[in-house]
Amino acid sequence: MGQFGGIESGGTKFICTIGSGPDQISAEERIPTTTPDETIRKVIHFFEPYAAANDLTAVGIASFGPLDLDHNSDTYGFITSTPKSGWQNTDLCGLIRRGLNVPVALDTDVNAAAYGEYYWHKEKRFLDPLLYMTVGTGIGVGVILNGKPLHGLIHPEAGHISLPHNWQQDPFPGVCPYHHDCLEGLASGYAMSERWGQKPETLPDDHPAWILEAEYISLGLLNLFYAFSPTQIVMGGGVLQHPGLIQSVRTKFKEINNQYVRSSMLLEKIDEYIHLPILGNRSGVLGAMAMAIKCVEPG
Amino acid sequence: MGQFGGIESGGTKFICTIGSGPDQISAEERIPTTTPDETIRKVIHFFEPYAAANDLTAVGIASFGPLDLDHNSDTYGFITSTPKSGWQNTDLCGLIRRGLNVPVALDTDVNAAAYGEYYWHKEKRFLDPLLYMTVGTGIGVGVILNGKPLHGLIHPEAGHISLPHNWQQDPFPGVCPYHHDCLEGLASGYAMSERWGQKPETLPDDHPAWILEAEYISLGLLNLFYAFSPTQIVMGGGVLQHPGLIQSVRTKFKEINNQYVRSSMLLEKIDEYIHLPILGNRSGVLGAMAMAIKCVEPG
User: Fold this and answer.
1) What pLDDT was estimated at residue A126?
2) pLDDT band at residue B128, thresholds of 50, 70 and 90?
3) What value does the mean pLDDT take over residues A20-35?
4) DSSP labels for chain A?
5) Any CB–CB contact under 8 A between A243 and chain B?
6) Which of A237, B73, B117, B198 is most deeply buried (CB count within 10 A of its CB)?
7) Residue of B nearest to A150 (CA)
8) A73-94 pLDDT, tens per residue?
9) Does A110 touch chain B (CB under 8 A)?
10) Chain B residues inside the 8 Å CB shell of A227
11) CB A113 within 8 A of CB A282
């Protein structure tokens, strides 16, 4: 049994890693996202020596999207209608599979991150359904259900759920080109930058931005809690790194739930229940590696 | 192999049925919901002749809740903290299992209705994830994922998701004792009665109530669509019986999505995609029967 590749394919860089687990990484490289041709050629070049030595069993890819994940589709494994220039209709999965001649698993970056948090956690059985929300430039949601990332008609797009807009304290109309003031439109890092005229990481701790941010994130999170009834909620992404934000989200989440759902996870153990990723900012790439491992397992 | 029992346990009546499918019903009875003792005694009495003749293989129950559905819990199968007087902490599942000495499957009324729509549909493989929403006195949501009703920390409570309250046209504060203006608080049949001072079934077709109702239901539905990416959406419950309402919901749903998700199911086939129950108002009791069949299947 050889090693496994994980690729986190993002708008600015592709992170490529090879190994067999979070603590067994043989090599890793960051490749800038330029054209599909150049970028994918460099990705293949990174893995090629391992493939040639029969030391690469499979590769998993955690990618930006939208992706075609329908195995019955002619364009399965493609990046489809992305705004990322030059990357529309790119056969990401096929190019890498043919380049390396190994099985390739593909999922959205958020589903892969959710899977990483699920797969590499020691007590897997307590973690399903697992909900993963990332608040960075955008907002994305991944869900693990019955041990697998949730797909469906397409895949979850829960960054775009609507919620009560606090017009009284927040006249900002939102930045989503489709829905204006959906969750991503109001609470993404990009929305924060546009609303306050400065990047979230430069806003001081006592800025009212953070109270509003906690309100919107917890409203979105509670909607997803009522939808999925998850056993764990993992909060990733750069905005959540702000000191104290996750604590404010927990407090506000309990306040809005108003004891409607009375689980001890909410009432007594909310710090365990809503938590930062155990893999830090490596949930995506290590989730991709886990997908590679899983895709060659029997059954 | 004997027949299967289905029970829909509601706040006003218990519907008991025995048979082997929607078109093979041997007998059916409606038992008024009085005390747990009396009601459950009559339920057992209905099924007893079949059980005595070895013609009852298993029973499924679709019940009002909240329910304890955790198989590891000491109170598995109990109705727990219901506002229904006298029914708190009732061992619904255990009393019926011991009374009839057959396996008993239990789920929420909405999960059971979702399962009925899934199980008795001819082309099952296209129907997962299936989302079922009922708009009656309250609003409930059931979800089938990977062939099974979704549970989790508890079970979905997606009638209580929040959404933008149209304060300009709707100063009504909402009726939910926990969240005021959540989906159920704004759009349930009870909310409609309280807002307009008359029951929804008495409101004329051209009353503004119906435009507002379509707006709130489609906002809630789109949130759940973004969360689950279902392959089918089934809309049950009395309020949805209002002529034209489901059509308004479809139109508004597409309008709010604003071509963000571009699936042909939305763009071209929304009448197939969002539809009334194939089992009419019998999704719950026939879902309960399907649960009974499933619970004795090997594997």
Assistant:
1) 63
2) confident
3) 97
4) --EEEEEEE-SSEEEEEEEEETTEEEEEEEEE---HHHHHHHHHHHHHHHHHTT-EEEEEEEE-S-B---TTSTTTT-B-S-SSTT-TTB-HHHHHHHHHTS-EEEEEHHHHHHHHHHHTSTTGGG--SEEEEEESSSEEEEEEETTEE--SSS---GGG-B----TTT------BTTTBSBHHHHHSHHHHHHHHSS-GGGS-TTSTHHHHHHHHHHHHHHHHHHHH--SEEEEESSGGGSTTHHHHHHHHHHHHHTTSS--HHHHT-HHHHEE--TTGGGHHHHHHHHHHHHHTS--
5) no
6) B117
7) B228
8) 899 999 988 888 899 999 999 9
9) no
10) 141, 156, 158, 161, 223-224, 227-228
11) no
With beta carbons less than 8 A apart as the criterion, state whether A56 and A102 touch.
yes
Q: Are B38 and B21 in contact (CB under 8 A)?
A: no
Query: ipTM of the predicted structure?
Result: 0.94
Express each pLDDT in B103-113 by its tens digit: 999 999 999 99
> Cβ(A117)–Cβ(A161) under 8 Å?
no
CB contact under 8 A, B161 and A265: no
Q: Do A162 and B256 touch (CB under 8 A)?
A: yes
Rounded Cα distance, A177 and B46, in Å: 58
Contact between B164 and A165 using a beta-carbon 8 Å cutoff: yes
CA distance B176 to chain A (A): 10
| A230:B256 CB<8 A | no
By CA distance, what is A68's nearest residue in B? B263
Type of residue at A28: E
Minimal C-alpha gap between A175 and chain B (Å): 14
Structure tokens at A141: 């949601």
Torsion, CA B9, CA B10, CA B13, CA B19, rounded to 10: -30
Judged by CB atoms closer than 8 Å, whether chains meet at A163 and B163 is answered as: yes
Contact B226 A256 (CB under 8 A): no
Q: What digits encode the pLDDT tens for the residues B235-282?
A: 999 999 999 999 999 999 999 999 998 888 999 999 999 999 999 999
